[in-house]
Structures are given as C-alpha cells and as structure tokens.
Fold this sequence. Notes:
With about 375 residues, the chain is of the alpha/beta class. It folds into 2 domains: about 1-50 and about 365-385, Urease, subunit C, domain 1; about 50-350, Metal-dependent hydrolases (TIM Barrel), CATH 3.20.20.140. It is about 25% helix and about 30% strand. It contains 10 helices and 24 strands. The protein has helices at about 70-80, 100-115, 155-160, 175-185, 200-210, 230-235, 255-265, 315-325, 330-335, 340-345; strands at about 1-5, 10, 15, 20-25, 25-30, 40-45, 50, 55-60, 60, 65, 85-95, 125, 130-135, 165-170, 190-195, 210-215, 240-245, 270, 285, 290-295, 300, 360-365, 370-375, 380. The strands form 5 sheets. Strands 8, 11, 12, 13, 14, 15, 16, 17 and 18 form a 9-stranded parallel beta sheet that branches. It has a 6-stranded mixed beta sheet with strand order 3-2-7-22-23-24. The protein is globular, with a radius of gyration of 20 Å. The two termini are about 25 Å apart. Zinc ion binds near residues 57 and 273.
Amino acid sequence: MKAIVNGRVVLENATVTGQAVLFDEKIVGIVPENEVRDCEIIDAQGKYVLPGLVDMHIHGYLGEDASDGKAAGIRTMARGIAKNGVTSWLPTTMTVSYAELEKAFKAIRTVKKESEKDNFDGAQIMGINAEGPFINPSKKGAQAGEHIRPCDPEFIAKYADIIKVFTVAPEMKGNLAALRRIHKEFPKLLISMGHTSATFEQAQKGVRAGVRHVTHLFNAMTPLMHRDPGVVGCALGDSRLSTELIADTFHVNRNLFKIVSELKGDKLVLITDCTRAGGMPDGEYSLGGQPIFVKGIECRLADGTIAGSVLKLNEAVRNMHLNVKRLPIHKVVKMASLNPARALGIDGVKGSIKPGKDADFCFADDDFNISRTILRGRTIYSGEDK
Ligand SMILES: [Zn+2]
C-alpha cells in the first residue's frame, strides 16, 4: 500500500492536514499520519492533494484534435493534459461530417481501452463528448455550418456505448421528439443544450424532453434579458441542469464567476473547451476544418468569432479561486472534479478523495501549478519531466 503524507488534502467538504491518504489502485482510507505503518510513502511537501481533475469538454491539445480521427493524437492529448492534473476526460468532437465523426469515435474507442490498462501514461478516457452536429446554424460559433443536421437517434444509438454527452439545440425542427426518444432509450446519456437560439420556453421544453446539462454557459446561446430570459435564464434557474463554464476570463467576464457559482453551486462544471493550440505557442491552427488564430488566451476565426480556448483545467480552477473571494478551496476544486463526475454519472469511481474510489490525485501549489498526477495509484506525471 502507498500513503500520501504532508499534504493539504482536499476532500469533498473540507481541506484537512495531518491526514494521510492510503491507496493501492483504489483509495483505502484517510487516517492520521502517525497511524501510517508499512506503506510506500509519497511526500506531498505541503502541497494541496487534489482529486484528479475531470475535463468533460476538450477538443484538442499539443497540436492534436479529437476530431482528427488519429489514435496517436488522442494519446498525445491524454499524456499532455495529465500534466495539468487531469486524470479523466472526454475527447470532444466538433460538428464535422458523419464519416469524420465515425473515424474519430473509432480512434477514441481504441485509446479509451488502452487508457483503462495499467501501462497507460496519460489521463483515462471516460467516453466521448459530441458537441454537435445537432445544433442551430444561427449559433454555430466556430462549428462548420455545412455539417449541421437534425438530432438523429439512430446515430446516437449506434455509439451509445461510448458517447457520454452530446450537444443539441432543442428549438430545431424535430429535435424535441428525437430527444424524448433518446432520453427514454438511454437515460444515462447526458443531453446538453448548446449552440442554441432557444427562447426560455423552448429551453424548458428541452429540459422536459431530457436535457440535463448546458454547453459552455453564455457562449453560443440566447442571453439573459430581463423580459426574455433565454437559455441562460433557464440554465441559471433550473437546478436539474448542470452547467459548463469556460473560466478563462475571456469567454466569460470574471465578474460573473461569483454569481454563477452561487446560483449553480455543485452543478457548476469548469471545462477548458481547449483546441489543438493548447500547450502550444501563439500562431495559426485549425478547429473543425477552419483556420483559427491564437494570441495569448484568445482563439478566433478569421472573422473574429471566438473559437475555443487554450485553457488548462488547473488554470480554470486558479481563475475561479482568484475571482470568487472566500469560496473555500474544496468548493472550487469540486467544480473541476466531483461536479463533472456527477454530471457524467461516474462519481462512484471518480471525482473525489473518498475510500473505494479510484486513486486519482494531483498535487498542486498555492497557484494550482501541478507537480504530480496519479491515476489509479500510479504516478503518470511528476514535475521532473516538465
Ligand atoms: Zn467545444
């Protein structure tokens, strides 16, 4: 058995010191440090010991993109994001052709299996997030308009073993009926509304049809107006809906972080929406077949449309921590661990430091720089190979 000592251990409802985390592949217990016997000791050197982070919406990293359909690219991403403290993730596809999606799904399925084995040195794939193609062309953002289609229950059924979440615009013709069918057949599949011009009432109808999640709140959806509350109004007010936020301070103004965190609480999920430009220098890249231009934290299409991000999930945690005063660390960390795990229905094994769950951890300093990442009890990243 192994024991992490000398850390500030971030549990679901508190941060504790003087406690050791015992684990093999699974977390065995949390005990006073002076009770530790016969364990391989891992010294956290006073750092935060966080649950492994969960990124449920990430397209690319280190020059690779989940929509490329290349297994090697998915492996590179898995290894890359492990350095940001991520232990579980959903490679996220864009609105591309069915042929490209099917190729991408196949590659992701291959690497998902590898990532469940003990010799894999990257973050574990928990399934796929299909962002589109069932969206509204008027809110396509950086998605390719020519590949948008009506929601397709047959297509979803074909890949229901691997798709964990997909995005849909509930107001598009036929989509509500399709959603009802999918929700009934696959109740565990998370249906997210996004890239949508739904009114508040249409969004509510979506929820009645099975929508339980909201794709990157505020971005590519109808805003909250006081006489027309839109999808944002529905997302903020309905406690059944978990809600993604790209907390890079560019997609959403930092002054909104506090109000969103207060309204959504444990239903708020930090995501990166990262593109292949993540972890790379400024310059020109591509997203869903379109060129994007990256400068600092901004990614845009040629016409200026915002196109994904270069955010890292540990940075999203830092941004939330810095911009929401007096929010306890364990609540901030939950937004990137337990909250997404719950939304995805994987919180029985992932998302928090609790006996019985997978031994997934990362060590972070006060600025949330990551120095070590552990997946199912094995170190998959340690600061030395930075
Ligand atoms: Zn996205």
